[in-house]
């Protein structure tokens, strides 16, 4: 059996503000240590329950955060960028399940360090479904008929996952106080929780169905600033909707929509402010 694990950083135990998740800031090394410890709890549990292969995808920022020398020795790590499929790089139909760890709530919602890909995104949609990183990644897993078994992060990410994926197991390692403060478990207690919830998720895996994406989906991204929308709409095939900051794209499938989202958000980040 084979497990895919996507690991973001904002939803890791004890990480509450940008000083932990920005490589230029003072608490980043602590953030790396905690992130690596956290995914190891999950990996060890997965192997202990009979899985033979675990592939971990580093899914935060430049995607080179996990300390490979401290990672479980039997895991395989996808690290670095550019990755065509970003947070779900390497995921395909050979996997029996997926786990999202260190995840956060989507943009415009309360949650510790909540956002969707970049801070210039206000809302993102697949057809009429509002999604964040969690939802988009779950749709890609569903394209490959892979169920998302466990989502770990703050309590708001857990609520988002439960509303989107029937039967999913969640693990809330901290609770929202404000966007940059949290009531957090200690690493020891979160480790115990993650082991317990990973075990529960795997034992419940037959009850969770893949989140199947729509065929020929329409991707819509509502940006915060009109300049960001202008940049994003430079991608061929996009439409900048009149009177607002929403850019839409008709994709042939969810994989193309995902790549389009990567290109549009990367372009949007070229916007400068004065």
Automatic annotation (TrEMBL):
<keyword id="KW-0031">Aminopeptidase</keyword>
<dbReference type="InterPro" id="IPR027476">
    <property type="entry name" value="DppA_N"/>
</dbReference>
<keyword id="KW-0645">Protease</keyword>
<dbReference type="InterPro" id="IPR007035">
    <property type="entry name" value="Peptidase_M55"/>
</dbReference>
<protein>
    <submittedName>
        <fullName>D-amino peptidase</fullName>
        <ecNumber>3.4.11.-</ecNumber>
    </submittedName>
</protein>
<dbReference type="Pfam" id="PF04951">
    <property type="entry name" value="Peptidase_M55"/>
</dbReference>
<dbReference type="InterPro" id="IPR036177">
    <property type="entry name" value="Peptidase_M55_sf"/>
</dbReference>
<keyword id="KW-0378">Hydrolase</keyword>
<dbReference type="GO" id="GO:0004177">
    <property type="term" value="F:aminopeptidase activity"/>
</dbReference>
